[in-house]
Amino acid sequence: MGGYMEFLYQLESIRNPFLSGIFRLFTLLGQEVVVLAVLCFFYWCYNKKLAYRISFGFFLSAILVQGLKITFRIPRPWIKDPLFKPVEDAINAATGYSFPSGHTQAATALYGTLALATKKRASKIMLFLVIAMVGLSRMYLGVHTPADVLTSFVITLATILLVYYFSNFELTKDKKVYLMIGIGVFAIALLIYCVTLYTNGTIELAYAADSCSAAAAGVGLAIGWYVESTYLNFNERACSNRMQVVKLLIGLTVTILLKEGLGFILGASITGKGVKYFLLVLWIMIGYPCIIKRFMNKA
């Protein structure tokens, strides 16, 4: 930890308003809301197959990262070393334990999957540079150590590589059922684990709620993917270009309102946050596609 903190102190020594502004922008690229917005664009409007790859990589790696967070329970750098000062306005978004980095996980899942999908070398390099800058931004802002960032990157990269490999196989209906159950069991295992740690007093409510959110979203993904790919099969590109823009704007607006509304109604409890993310993922995966298929693909 000492070596890691020395590196963070070196980054702290070069902070200035210009660099801080640049790294704030990069850290936004790893925010949950950005990942969800890009995912919705691909899923609803552009490339459903690629959206599934992003979804599986993002949610499966999130379950792994959240599991490691509540297992190791490593505090943030400024808690570990009270003399260290992070960038103040970065603290609010730094929820949960420090190890591994959630922003790095999200950025690697999204931009790493896009990098694997593109055939252009320049695009691959640019996308992996974005991942590197998101990880560096978390250290520059003082909310993560190199161990947090590198561990998250390796775990998520391995996850998206596995997803990319297995996505090339055709799945029968029976195999889809097995995959849905497998992902659901994986997510529920995290749910049981985090509830157990919370009830025995090992972790606090906020940390348990974050893990529960990831687990519930994973269950929502498994069910949503199975239902859509087996029964719904909406056409994401059937609309006119103008309707595509309208479709995306309506969908994102309702998604944001749903996210905020469910948060207000259900609260910040373990159950509340779990139900919120479960319903939110089902809306993205099944609810809005049903509306698209019924009303918008004819426009």
UniProtKB/TrEMBL annotation:
Keyword Chloroplast found: no
Protein name: Phosphoesterase PA-phosphatase related
Residues in Phosphatidic acid phosphatase type 2/haloperoxidase domain copies: 49-164
Keywords, comma-separated and alphabetical: Membrane, Transmembrane, Transmembrane helix
Keyword S-adenosyl-L-methionine listed: no
UniProt signal peptide: none
Domain of life: Bacteria
Organism: Lachnoclostridium phytofermentans (strain ATCC 700394 / DSM 18823 / ISDg)
